[in-house]
Design a protein that fits this description.
This protein is mainly β. It folds into 3 domains: 4-118, Immunoglobulin-like (Sandwich), CATH 2.60.40.10; 122-221, Immunoglobulins (Immunoglobulin-like, Sandwich), CATH 2.60.40.10; 226-327, Immunoglobulin-like (Sandwich), CATH 2.60.40. The chain is built from 2 helices and 23 strands. The chain has helices spanning 4-25, 266-270, and strands spanning 39-43, 52-58, 68-73, 76-82, 86-90, 98-105, 111-118, 122-129, 148-156, 167-173, 177-183, 187-191, 198-207, 213-221, 226-233, 237-243, 247-250, 255-262, 274-280, 283-285, 293-296, 301-311, 318-327. Strands 17-23-22-19-20 form a 5-stranded mixed sheet. The protein has a 4-stranded antiparallel sheet with strand order 4-3-6-7, with no helix packed on it. The chain has a 4-stranded antiparallel sheet with strand order 11-10-13-14, with no helix packed on it. A hairpin with a 3-residue loop joins strand 15 and strand 16 (237-243).
Amino acid sequence: MRNSTTSAISAHAYRWVGAIAAASLLTIPSICSALDVVSHTLKPSTPGPNQDVVVSLESYTADLGTSHIVWYVDGAPKGEGNGMMKFTAQTKDLGQKTTITAIIITSGGARIDHSIVLLPLYVDLLWQADGYVPPFYKGKALPSSYSKVRFAAFPFSKSGSNDPSAFAYTWYIKRVSKVGDGLGANSVVVAAPRENLSQNVSVDVTGADGEGQGSANLDLKSVSPYLVFYEFAPLLGLRLEQAIKDAWPSEPDQTMIRAVPYNMSTTDIAAGKTRITWTIGGATTANGPDPLEISVGGTSGSRTVGVNLIDLANAFQSARGQFILTSAPSN
């Protein structure tokens, strides 16, 4: 049984031999470094700042399982072993590079150098739905069933270019269906899910030179379109400050009413793909120059004013509403 002194000497000798072996790798000619014989995958594929990432090496031409592999992080040796095809490192702060290098010595004595640069990016993901809202509306149009929604990604790094066209993008729905990719493709248009359902939209971003990784995602949920009636006054314009409720008094002369179909497809309305039907007192009336507006009045009493909107290009979008208009007799 070895004593403690012998064990200490053996451990010291092992470290010394390991150091010599690592240093000797630097003197072996890199005869394969120019060949694309080794690739890698990252897990996660787009690591964020100060996050652990597992690097896995792959090759179809070199037997990595019988090769001696030494791993370096920013030039400092961090691990080695035969067949050591996986290595865990940690990224730095946003915009700071981490260079991981694997020096591979095959069983035949060939050397392969493979480097990976990790540069965490922050990605701001914005979206805009093709939904109808009135002029000067302070809110945001929301997606409705199968309406079009445009996503745009804006990567940011503390160093280097932040020009969106300088990055490559890959877009996914639910991380399964690829819906767009390419250099400078920082936006994509997707169809919103059915009403009250949600779907995850994500994007992976990398630098055009392979440096810089980032990702972002969000859950997009559809809502039901709805109608709100407003009075259109000749001098004040559309009176958004006061919506027309169930019963609305009007003057004996004509009153202009506008129906605002919140969150219905703006494109389909503008293209005439939405059927708009107005009724007064239960009878269908002809649309005016603007199909979302109607002029009523001229008689006393109460009448029910209603409108029905059906998107002919998207059967899942529709909205309807009605109110009672009351007019006092003129003196």
